[in-house]
């Protein structure tokens, strides 16, 4: 009764438990917390609630043949019911020997059971044969509960107290985190490349944190000083803002986990910065809605997908609610506004931010015509993130919001499937009839395929996969994707040279664009799945087109002096925007083509690009773009030299460029396209087919869990602005009172006369 602050109580048989040799309790606290969070009981035929006791018996099965017997511990969820039932707990016996497989609880004159199956690749560690309604939960390979090696009972109890304190502030994951890759199996060449990219990620991240998180230099920001800067300018060695929500911090979270693991210094410092305060919805500056969704919401959901950390899911959930309450709600049509000031939708100080946001919206609409227009990508690229959130939470609110946008804009599509690229959000009408596949439309086209890949169940075949259980909206997305690939992509967005017909340059408006180098990967991905009327012959021709476009992008890279592709040029004379902006699109396609073919040539291409980035873009304080890929800076001159530098390290460099390079050289099964779909900002989201194997709790339980106080996001109150507004209100009141008194003094003599 004195340990009511602990999450779990302990029933111990002797003083030792072994599940894997030579690993201490402290080393397995994370796995211990994971086990605690699993809901393993089916009580009264309903899902277990927070007040239902769940008991887990863990035994020393590995020591049975060594005279160790079946010693183990019984863990009991610590709540009022459990404490009342402690004396009613009995263990079944069979033939005079203890049967450690079933724990039976006496409650309300009836018996209830809690069952568990622990197994690895070699053997079953623990299995209950008394299962109600067939509920047996499998713990995945490598994820064990707890190990005690030469520890006394008091040491174990101390460890449990430590875990209890951790659980009070750091709730355990909702499912096991993505397992770290076994890089020992990599060849020496591939291992060297993998570690080189790790080093680049560490250098880029450290450069950002030194200037934007840990810097003691005076902060030039006049609003939202608690939020780190979005990006850094390596040459000027300073942070700068454009989104006002710490874009690089959120964009980098899943990259840091994939590169270094959840226990790494890099990931922990990023996580602490994200969780410290509500940096997601407390900026006092207008933010760009589309960019916020792909970087902030996408970054949080991607990190949740690989870690299972419910705190990240809560922040993503709150962020999406902020979008719905501001740019979505402030638009008179289904199309969201391009910019808006967001506000927290729950938690302390919410009212202040809401009033501030509403005042901004009133002033904007009363006195200006700002934010009446948005691009197709800006209104139609929320689908992947919103669908994923709906799947996890088991609610249709977010899915329906983006379905409405899609169904609206496709009513204006041209005969060839191209949707207009510029929209008036106040009327819901397109501003032109023209469209494309590049800037302003690219992510909308990308999500036509990726949303069905995420949300539809997949059936693996001998040579390919099929998408099943697609809703009518998802089927319409696939149809429009096919229409675009078979029509305008081939006719208007590919440039061929007569000298080599096997090379096709991805183009927009009849010029090569770096941005549309995502098309080789997208088309290759679409050719790998059976959907709509995607025949074997069509898939073969689509994949051939994907490889031809990849060769076109590669030719532009190889033709440049730096080995890096230009932003936008004429294919023949290379006139145009010859800069390199650290973009990821071609590297994304290289990664996808490698995943689908396994051909080492794609790894070699990626390595050549990485070496060029290291040679021409790396500085002491991060990475920069180049003004002219055909006229590089002199050596590693930070001031520029030669063609000079683009003094910006955008958040997508860590989120996309370096992540795809890392995964290109990582073990093939680390982040597989069979299990994840990458957002337009390269954040991996679990596919529907993986949900079943991820030991993910039910949506209703997740919603109840995330409502706990431990998940509450605390919004910072900007006292100085609060005081200024208060002073202004008081001043206005004083002026009004003074004017009223003055008016009374003027009127009084007149009344006497």
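-> sequence recovered:
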């Amino acid at each position: 009764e004195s340990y009511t602050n602990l999450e779990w109580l302990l029933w111990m048989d002797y003083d030792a438990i072994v599940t894997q040799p030579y690993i201490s309790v402290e080393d397995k606290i994370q796995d211990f917390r994971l086990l605690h969070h699993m809901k393993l009981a089916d009580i009264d035929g309903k899902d277990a609630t927070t007040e239902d006791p769940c008991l887990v018996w863990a035994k020393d099965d590995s020591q049975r043949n060594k005279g160790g017997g079946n010693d183990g511990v019984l863990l009991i969820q610590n709540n009022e019911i459990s404490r009342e039932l402690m004396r009613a707990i009995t263990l079944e016996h069979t033939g005079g020997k203890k049967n450690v497989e079933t724990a039976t609880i006496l409650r309300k004159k009836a018996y209830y059971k809690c069952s568990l199956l622990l197994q690895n690749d070699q053997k079953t560690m623990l299995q209950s044969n008394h299962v109600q309604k067939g509920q047996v939960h499998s713990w995945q390979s490598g994820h064990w509960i707890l190990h005690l090696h030469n520890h006394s009972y008091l040491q174990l109890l101390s460890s449990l107290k430590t875990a209890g304190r951790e659980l009070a502030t750091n709730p355990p994951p909702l499912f096991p985190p993505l397992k770290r890759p076994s890089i020992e199996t990599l060849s020496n060449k591939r291992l060297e490349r993998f570690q080189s990219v790790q080093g680049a990620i560490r250098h880029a991240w450290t450069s950002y944190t030194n200037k934007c998180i840990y810097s003691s230099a005076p902060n030039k920001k006049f609003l939202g000083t608690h939020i780190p800067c979005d990006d850094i300018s390596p040459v000027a060695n300073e942070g700068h803002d454009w989104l006002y929500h710490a874009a690089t911090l959120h964009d980098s979270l899943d990259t840091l986990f994939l590169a270094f693991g959840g226990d790494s210094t890099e990931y922990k410092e990023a996580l602490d910065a994200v969780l410290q305060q509500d940096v997601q919805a407390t900026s006092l500056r207008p933010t760009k809605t589309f960019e916020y969704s792909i970087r902030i919401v996408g970054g949080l959901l991607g990190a949740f997908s690989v870690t299972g950390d419910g705190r990240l899911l809560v922040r993503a959930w709150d962020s999406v609610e902020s979008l719905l309450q501001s740019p979505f709600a402030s638009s008179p049509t289904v199309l969201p506004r391009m910019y808006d000031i967001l506000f927290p939708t729950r938690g302390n100080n919410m009212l202040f931010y809401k009033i501030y946001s509403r005042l901004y919206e009133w002033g904007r609409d009363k006195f200006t015509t700002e934010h009446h227009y948005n691009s197709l990508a800006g209104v139609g690229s929320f689908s992947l993130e919103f669908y994923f959130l709906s799947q996890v939470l088991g609610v249709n609110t977010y899915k329906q919001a983006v379905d409405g946008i899609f169904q609206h804009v496709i009513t204006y599509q041209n005969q060839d499937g191209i949707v207009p690229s510029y929209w008036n959000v106040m009327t819901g009408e397109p501003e032109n009839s023209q469209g494309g596949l590049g800037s302003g439309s690219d992510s909308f086209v990308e999500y036509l395929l990726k949303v069905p890949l995420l949300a539809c169940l997949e059936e693996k075949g001998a040579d390919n996969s099929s998408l099943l259980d697609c809703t009518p909206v998802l089927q319409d997305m696939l149809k429009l994707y096919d229409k675009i690939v078979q029509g305008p992509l081939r006719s208007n967005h590919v440039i061929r040279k007569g000298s080599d017909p096997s090379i096709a340059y991805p183009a927009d408006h009849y010029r090569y664009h770096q941005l549309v180098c995502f098309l080789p990967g997208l088309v290759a991905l679409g050719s790998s799945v059976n959907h709509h009327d995607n025949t074997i012959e069509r898939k073969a021709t689509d994949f051939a087109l994907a490889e031809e476009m990849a060769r076109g992008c590669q030719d532009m890279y190889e033709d440049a002096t730096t080995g890096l592709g230009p932003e936008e040029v004429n294919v023949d004379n290379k006139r145009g925007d010859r800069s390199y902006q650290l973009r990821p699109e071609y590297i994304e396609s290289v990664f996808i083509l490698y995943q689908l073919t396994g051909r080492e040539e794609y790894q070699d291409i990626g390595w050549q690009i990485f070496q060029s980035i290291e040679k021409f873009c790396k500085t002491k304080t991060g990475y920069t773009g180049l003004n002219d890929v055909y006229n590089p800076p002199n050596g590693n001159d930070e001031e520029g030299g030669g063609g000079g530098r683009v003094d910006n390290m955008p958040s997508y460099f860590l989120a996309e460029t370096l992540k795809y390079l890392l995964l290109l050289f990582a073990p093939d099964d680390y982040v597989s396209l069979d299990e994840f779909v990458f957002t337009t900002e390269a954040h991996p989201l679990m596919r529907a087919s993986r949900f079943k194997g991820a030991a993910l709790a039910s949506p209703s339980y997740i919603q109840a869990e995330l409502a706990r106080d431990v998940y509450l996001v605390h919004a910072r109150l900007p006292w100085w602005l609060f005081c200024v507004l208060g002073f202004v209100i008081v001043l206005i009141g004083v002026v009004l009172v003074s004017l009223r008194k003055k008016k009374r003094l003027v009127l009084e003599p007149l009344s006497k006369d």
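Residues 719-752 form the longest helix (34 residues).
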